[in-house]
UniProtKB/TrEMBL annotation:
The lineage of its organism: Bacteria, Pseudomonadati, Pseudomonadota, Gammaproteobacteria, Aeromonadales. Signal peptide: none annotated. This is Lactoylglutathione lyase family protein. PROSITE patterns: VOC. Residues 8-155 form the VOC domain.
Length: 167
């Protein structure tokens, strides 16, 4: 059997309690492009309604969705469900599933401040340097205003890990 080739990343779906506020945050703070404005999807016999019933099961009723795109063409679907639950602490890293996503910004300190000003918060007091005194690679964990965990890297993923970041 041949080795698989590395697939590219297409998009991620993020649940939020307020779709308009999330669209504002992700377009104004992270600079992502709005490619489809907030739209309501209802449980019916349309193609999209049937596809959602296949995924969510019967009885989902409706949700709202907006589509955004990052600067490197990764799609971001923002979902607002009518029966959504908003836990006090959304950082359940010990549970199976995605617990964060990461964006890249060479001035992560400035972006971290913008996130805080927009209602988000720091999960770390200060950025961590991967190679102190040797390279400027750093990272910080943040939380958006809706409880979703995001990490910021100053440089590419490959640069952070190619030289043994944990040694």
């Amino acid at each position: 059997m041949a080795n698989p080739y590395p697939r590219t990343f297409s998009h991620i779906g993020i649940s939020v309690p307020d779709l308009e506020a999330a669209v504002r945050f992700y377009t104004e703070v992270l600079g992502w492009y709005l490619i489809m404005p907030p739209t309501e999807i209802i449980e019916d016999d349309s193609a999209i309604g049937e596809m959602c019933t296949d995924v969510f099961g019967a009885g989902w009723q409706s949700f709202r969705i907006a589509h955004l795109s990052t600067g490197d063409r990764i799609g971001v679907e923002l979902f607002q469900f009518s029966n959504q639950q908003n836990p006090d602490n959304n950082f359940e890293y010990w549970k199976t599933g995605v617990f964060h996503f990461c964006v890249q910004d060479p001035n992560l300190e400035e972006l971290a401040e913008k996130i805080e000003e927009a209602g988000g918060r720091r999960r770390m007091k200060a950025p961590r340097y991967y190679y102190p005194g040797e390279k400027p690679y750093r990272m910080i964990y943040m939380e958006d205003p809706f409880g979703n965990i995001l990490e910021i890297y100053s440089h590419s993923y490959e640069l952070h890990y190619a030289s043994g970041a944990y040694s």
